[in-house]
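Why should sequence recovery work at all? Because a backbone constrains its sequence more than one might expect. Tight turns favour small or flexible residues, buried strands favour hydrophobic ones, and helices have their own preferences. The token representation captures these environments compactly. In the example below, the structure is given first.
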């Protein structure tokens, strides 16, 4: 449940940023650091679940895992269309 909320907030943040630039969110790149509670496969599943749950359609997703980086989940970049 905790990860579900994190993913929802991350997607909403990315969607707001895309809208502020006059576009629609098409993809995002995220980084999972040492403090992240998820691995890439689980995170991807959660993103797909949230997108389906909210009718957002497919969302491109690039996941970088850097367990040496002392951080959790980071939104690195977005792609808008």
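From this structural description, the recovered sequence reads:
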């Amino acid at each position: 449940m905790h990860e579900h909320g994190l993913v929802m907030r991350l997607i909403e943040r990315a969607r707001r940023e895309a809208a502020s630039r006059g576009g629609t969110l098409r993809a995002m790149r995220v980084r999972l650091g040492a403090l992240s509670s998820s691995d890439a496969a689980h995170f991807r599943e959660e993103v797909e679940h949230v997108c389906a749950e909210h009718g957002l359609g497919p969302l491109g997703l690039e996941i970088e895992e850097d367990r040496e980086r002392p951080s959790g989940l980071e939104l690195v970049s977005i792609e808008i269309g």
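A few observations help interpret the result. Residues 2-20 form the longest helix (19 residues).
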